[in-house]
Design a protein that fits this description.
By secondary structure, the chain is an alpha/beta fold. The chain folds into 3 domains: about 350 residues, Aldolase class I (TIM Barrel, Alpha-Beta Barrel); about 140 residues, 3-Layer(aba) Sandwich (Rossmann fold), CATH 3.40.50; about 110 residues, FAD/NAD(P)-binding domain. Helix content is about 30%, strand content about 20%. The strands form 7 sheets. It has an 8-stranded parallel beta barrel with strand order 3-4-5-8-9-10-11-12, surrounded by 7 helices. A hairpin with a 2-residue loop joins strand 1 and strand 2. The protein starts with 10 loop residues before the first strand and ends in a 6-residue tail after the last helix.
């Protein structure tokens, strides 16, 4: 009997029965064919979540217009009946697990890019630029709006013909239908603008048309942004009225989300946002409608999901990125294995990949988007011994994968606890998601009986030779970069890594050199401890290479703590009283006073740890930072893929 009783009760959307309350909501993955058909890759992607136990899958944004409605190059499409056979395969693939599937009908409006639509002008309710996209769209004519209504209806007809169980209208996140609903983006004066009902007219006509063409019992969910989190945008009181009106139009469910592109962190929350931070939105909507409410509340754990259901915050819980991170999230919750879930850390890598024109990936699930490629893990270990040196994320992922292949894994780490760099990553503020991920992946290692741990033990060539392994995986990490500059050996010069590990003391005024993720998070911790902090960056802006949403989130918090931020300043030396920098533009010199200098300049592979093993063992595989400095995602990907393709050979 599962401990999550609410989560695993049946539910209904219209007359459609769902086996539980877990929904895998729409999330762009860009795995379809270029013509919009469901590819083998996207079918496998959704099938894996169905096999993992969810009750309902809502597909990624599915375009209804090939001319102006493109969101990604490889998104699903329902513009042509030619896609029906592959939709049928998609539906059949998830139905065999007693899972239902909706297609989310979508048009981005002004929230796309002209390069995606062949250089054409974007269209919108009104010719008002989105402040994030910064391209002025063209206002649709009345006839064009009427034609767009028919395209949404046609999309639903095609979806139903393919065996899809229902559709969802994407009226959230600042996309086209949202642009009509919101007075923030709709300044029209025809019958699709002005009054409240005129602004909702396009959605009313779409719902009426779908019900007429597909039948009254064909379920329609409508996704809304209950708060747009911009001045002049929709607020919860407005959205209550919208939800009640949508219900009167015939909507069978309201899917509550929030935000538009201009308030992006409220759509796809960084890891700093707590679970359930916006549950008031769905709770309020649910109190005002009779149809079921689906809600995405940044849920990471089954325990919190169950709590939301018990509080009547929603009828169904949306588990999106958490299911990307672990397709078996629902199964593990149902079978009492919630402590084995690979937890989403909120790093936004999945959406960053989409913004770069790639398919969705996941930092903590190397198989995400590659499920068909890695469909069948070889089971050929036959009890042969493999050694893994280093118990960080890459080493643990390699150890798990090798153990699942049937190898006997000897995992060495010179520290007292597993975790590696994760033990440093959890030290800055608001890192509970990473801590949860660390704890759960350690649980997964400990659960596998064919992994033997050697903690507090330095691996030696002689000791490893004695084990007679068929392979050695080197995941021993990296060392901080310390530039060859005067004063770097001073007692007041420390690395961010040593400070976060508690190995180095920091006092008085502090200069943090480097403003990448480590530098900014270290600065935040120092400021919260009461230090006066100056951040020095040699580039023209802080956060070089950082995800824009993560940078926005970090800087919003950091600026409230009032650090001094200096850009275009390159450190050229340090001393007892601070550092000396050179301006990157005019090459002028200046001193920055400080009692402590913290170096946050990144890391580089530590070959002194790996070279002895590489020299002796032919089957030595370098993983993560031991190979090339990177992030958690790089270590996890390296650990999984190299363990997956490993071919045993006596060393």
């Amino acid at each position: 009997m599962t401990q999550f009783k609410k989560m695993f009760t049946n539910g209904h959307i219209g007359k459609l029965e769902l086996k539980n309350r877990v929904v895998f909501p729409a999330m762009g993955v860009s795995l379809a064919e270029l013509n919009g058909e469901a590819s083998d890759d996207i079918i496998r992607h959704y099938e894996e979540r169905a096999r993992g136990g969810v009750g309902l899958i809502i597909t990624e944004v599915t375009r209804v217009d090939d001319e102006t409605g493109v969101a990604t190059y490889k998104q699903l499409s329902v513009t042509d009946p030619k896609v029906i056979p592959q939709l049928q395969r998609l539906a059949d693939s998830v139905h065999k697990y007693d899972c239902k599937i909706f297609v989310q009908l979508h048009h981005p409006g002004r929230e796309t890019n002209e390069s995606l639509i062949g250089g054409k002008k974007m269209i919108s309710a009104s010719a008002i630029a989105d402040k994030f996209v910064k391209q002025v769209p063209r206002e649709m004519t009345t006839d064009e709006v009427t034609a767009m209504v028919k395209k949404f209806i046609k999309g639903a007809v095609i979806a139903k013909a393919g065996g899809i169980d229902g559709v969802e209208l994407h009226c959230a996140h600042g996309y086209l239908l949202n642009q009509f609903i919101s007075p923030y983006s709709n300044h029209r004066t025809d019958r699709y603008g002005g009054s409240f009902h005129n602004r909702l007219r396009i959605v009313q006509e779409i719902i009426s048309g779908i019900k007429f063409m597909c039948g009254q019992d064909f379920p329609i969910s409508v996704r809304i942004s209950a708060d747009e989190f911009v001045d002049g945008g929709m607020k919860i009181d407005d959205s209550v009225k919208v939800a009640k009106t949508l219900e009167s139009y015939g909507a069978d469910a309201i899917n509550v989300s929030s935000g538009i592109y201009e308030s992006a962190p409220t759509i796809i929350e960084p890891g700093s946002y707590p679970q359930g931070w916006k549950k008031n939105l769905s709770t309020t909507i649910k109190k005002n409608v009779k149809v079921p409410v689906i809600a995405v509340d940044n849920i990471k754990t089954p325990e919190f999901a169950e709590q939301l259901l018990e509080e009547d915050a929603s009828d169904f819980i949306g588990i999106a990125r958490a299911s990307l991170a672990d397709p078996a999230w629902t199964y593990k919750a149902r079978t009492g294995q919630s402590d084995q879930i690979t937890t989403c850390i909120g790093c936004l890598l999945c959406f960053q990949a989409l913004s770069e024109g790639k398919h969705a990936i996941c930092a903590v699930n190397p198989r995400a988007g590659r499920e068909r490629e890695f469909s069948a893990l070889p089971k050929d270990g036959n009890g042969q011994t493999v050694v893994v040196i280093g118990g960080g994320p890459g080493g643990m992922e390699a150890a798990k994968t090798l153990a699942d292949r049937g190898f006997k894994v000897e995992l060495f780490d010179k520290h007292e606890h597993l975790g590696g760099t994760l033990n440093l990553a959890i030290v800055p503020p608001l890192k509970d998601k990473i801590e949860l991920f660390r704890d759960h992946i350690i649980n997964q290692v400990n659960k596998r009986e064919n992994i033997e741990l050697h903690l507090n033990e330095e691996a030696t060539v002689a000791g490893i030779k004695a084990l007679n392994p068929v392979g050695v995986f080197l995941a021993s990490g990296a060392k901080p970069i310390i530039p060859m500059l005067p004063g770097m050996d001073g007692k007041n010069v420390v690395t961010a890594e040593d400070y976060l590990a508690g190995k180095a003391k920091v006092s008085g005024k502090v200069v943090v050199v480097g403003s990448g993720m480590t530098g900014l998070e270290t600065s935040e911790k120092l400021l919260e401890e009461g230090h006066e902090v100056t951040i020095v960056e040699k580039q023209k802006a802080v956060g070089p290479g950082m995800n824009p949403t993560l940078l926005m989130d970090e800087m919003t918090r950091l600026k409230k703590l009032n650090p001094t931020i200096l850009v275009n300043k390159q450190m050229i030396g340090a001393g007892d009283t601070g550092i000396k920098v050179m301006d990157s533009i005019d090459h002028g010199m200046m001193g920055i006073p400080a009692d402590t200098v913290v170096l946050a300049l990144g890391v580089t592979p530590d070959t002194t740890d790996t070279d002895p093993f590489v020299a002796v063992f032919d089957q030595a595989k370098l993983i993560g930072d031991a190979s090339a400095s990177g992030q958690i995602a790089d270590a996890m990907k390296d650990g999984y893929t190299k363990a997956y393709v490993f071919e045993p050979e006596m060393c």
